[in-house]
Amino acid sequence: NAAWERGRAGVKTFGAFGGGCRDNLSMYMDLADGTLLSQIMLQIDPRPTNQRINKHVNNDVNLRIQNLTILVRNIKTYYQ
Question: Residue 10: exposed, middle, or buried by beta-carbon count in 10 A (0-12, 13-18, 19+)?
């Protein structure tokens, strides 16, 4: 489907995954914090959501859990 292809193409444009200069730890933290995956999900389904992710998690476990919860909720909404 077209939305999936947009999302797949979007993966290549984000951060170091698109050829930027970042270290492996920064890339990992973007994945673990849910920020990168949330950006990709917004490319797939750009409809606004009531909750925005926290872009500056700074190793706060509660913010990380909140981001991933929002991401899972957005994925469920997309497929329903």
Answer: middle
